[in-house]
Design brief:
alpha/beta; Enolase-like, domain 1; TIM Barrel; 2 domains; binds (2S,3R,4R)-2,3,4,5-tetrahydroxy-N-oxo-pentanamide; binds cobalt (II) ion
Length: about 400
């Protein structure tokens, strides 16, 4: 029998914080899992170090499902982002170990390849329509088949998805307290359809265009926007409302044929049970790190498949290259894959997490023959970039009311 000998948590900050779990077996094989929860990283570190790791020692790492159930049911306190990110990290690491021990990529263990490559979408953003149109063009020139477009809004100083500099957008801000921003739904709704009209006028019908509303609309506002987007046939409208109230999507769905994506903040199948079974959404965004790892995501994706819901995993830069590697193994293997979000990590992050994925012409490829997840961590380099306190922003309406960010 193989046995788990030890495990440790590695926190590093090559431009942003990452939490990585490394599980070692007595046989000398190790596995990696991502446990990064943006802006609340240390809560997951403690959950792993103080409670989970002691329960792993001496167990057989090949019993992935049993260990998953032990951590989920055995805690008594179920669900939630901290718990589920910790369980996800263990689960990823165990699939990584299993792949390495059997000398095969994880996608093989999940049923084998269902496709050759994974369609990804990139992020284009600009301070105004003209700049955003240029950015979309730059992505199309790089070969992207699908591009998410976000633009600054006239009369609003800063908004979600638009960076002040030319760097990739990174919402977590280092510092002792969260930054605050101001929001106006009225200004946004009056403006944003124009962006997509101009994008279609400029680039024609072919490119897939996506947009993230980032939880800022009520159901009836989302219905209005979905209708106004219809002539520009978006690939999806994302997180149009906060989705704790799953029934609210009935209102949106009644009014618009714009495809809907939701779920990057979900943790379990229960968060999407009604959304999926009533076919109220088209794409589920819950990622491997948020959704309890490969084992639980496999169940969610299979459930979604029955209801014509496809996956569209969250893939922002706060999901580490370990999650990206797990996601790509998963995306390659399931039939109801939709699209994968891809925001390239900075060069330093790539160096700290050597990986085997490559972008080419709008698609992501995994190098053939890499056992396990196909990703590693350079611990020595990582130790040079210690944790730095950072928060996601807090958002208020123009009159000061606290709002969704
Ligand atoms: O705000 O990952 O679609 N992507 C997103 C992200 C989220 C961040 C939060 O940590 O909505 O940019
Ligand atoms: Co989003």
């Amino acid at each position: 029998m193989t046995t788990i000998e030890s495990a440790k948590v590695i926190v590093c900050s090559p431009g942003r914080n990452f939490v990585t779990l490394k599980i070692f077996t007595e046989q000398g094989v190790y596995g990696l899992g991502d446990a990064t929860l943006n802006g609340r990283e240390k809560a997951v570190v403690s959950y792993l170090e103080d409670y989970v790791i002691p329960c792993l020692i001496g167990r057989d790492p090949s019993r992935i499902e049993d260990i998953w159930q032990y951590l989920y049911k055995g805690a008594y306190w179920r669900r939630g982002p901290v718990t589920m990110s910790a369980i996800a990290a263990v689960d990823m690491a165990l699939w990584d170990i299993k792949g390495k021990m059997l000398d095969t990529p994880v996608y093989n263990l999940l049923g084998g390849k269902s496709r050759e490559a994974v369609m990804v979408y990139g992020h284009a953003n600009g301070k105004d329509i003209a700049e955003t149109i240029d950015e979309v063009g730059r992505h199309l020139d790089k070969g992207y088949k699908a591009v998410r477009a976000q633009s600054g809004i006239p009369g609003i100083e800063s908004t979600y998805g638009v960076s002040k500099t030319k760097d990739n957008y990174e919402p977590a801000v280092r510092g002792d307290l969260p930054k605050e921003s101001l929001w106006s739904t009225e200004k946004y709704l009056n403006f944003i359809p124009k962006l997509f009209k101009e994008l279609r006028d400029t680039y024609g019908d072919e490119p897939h265009l996506l947009h993230d509303c980032h939880h800022r609309l009520t159901p009836i506002e989302a219905a209005r926007l979905g209708k106004e987007f219809e002539p520009y046939h978006l690939f999806w409208m994302e997180d149009c409302t906060p989705a704790e109230l799953q029934e609210s999507f009935r209102i949106i769905r009644e009014h618009t044929t714009t495809p809907l994506a939701v779920g990057e903040v979900f943790n379990t199948v229960w968060d999407a049970q009604l959304l999926i079974s009533e076919m109220l959404i088209d794409y589920l965004r819950t990622s491997i790190v948020r959704g309890g790892g490969i084992s639980h995501m496999k169940k969610i994706a299979s459930f979604a498949e029955i209801y014509h819901v496809r996956t569209g995993f969250h893939g922002a830069t706060d999901l580490s290259p370990v999650t990206m590697s797990a996601a790509l193994n998963f995306d390659l293997s399931i039939n109801n894959f939709g699209i994968q979000e891809y925001m390239p990590h900075n060069g330093l992050t790539q160096e700290l997490f050597p990986n085997s994925y490559q972008f080419k012409d709008g698609f992501m490829y995994l190098e053939e023959g890499k056992p396990g997840l196909g990703v590693d961590i350079d611990e020595e380099k990582a130790s040079k970039y210690p944790y730095e306190r950072a928060y996601l922003p807090v958002n208020r309406k123009e009159d000061g009311t606290l709002f969704n960010w």
